Amino acid sequence: MFSDGYKFLEAVKKKDGTEVTQMLDKPGSTLVNSRDLTTGDSALHMVTARRDLTWIRFLLGKGANPNIRNKKGETPLMIASQLGFTDGVEALAKAGAQVDNPNAAGETPLIAAVHRRDLSMMRVLLKAGANPDRNDNSGRSAMDYARLAGAGQELIDVIERNAKPENERENAGVTYGPRF
């Protein structure tokens, strides 16, 4: 016998909108944030990984937590950022996803975008309030990584032109690790 959470996640994997809707519409249902026991992935992680904007919006509309983490410490927004899925990042940020939520290594979505030299993703994250000075577990920030990258001036320029002033960021003053 499978649990309701397992059945829900399987229905999401199969893109069975009718079954998922019926399960979520039951009075008192809390299935929307069910997680896979092995990976810790929620339905929102799964639909983000398959770059499915329709399902992202549907699950968020049903109360999915945009800041839920899997066993790697990744949020759906981190996954969208790593995939270069700007529409997904925008939808998740609009729904309240914290743009500076780090993974287990302390890497933020912005740091991941800098590593990939994904300028459009960097712009989206910065406009959503990402902090270019927030450090990862090694003590380096997105700005530090931009400076270290060969051909990094373009990365630095994107950060300087698009970063919100510190007092306008959603998590102003919240940092991780030492500041230099």
Automatic annotation (TrEMBL):
Keywords (A to Z) from UniProt: ANK repeat, Repeat
Keyword Metal-binding: no
GO molecular function, one term: ubiquitin-protein transferase activity
Disordered: annotated span: 161-180
ANK repeat ranges, renumbered to this chain: 39-71, 72-104, 105-137
GO BP term, example: protein K6-linked ubiquitination
Keyword Repeat: yes
Protein name in UniProt: Ankyrin repeat domain-containing protein
Classification lineage: Bacteria, Pseudomonadati, Pseudomonadota, Alphaproteobacteria, Sphingomonadales
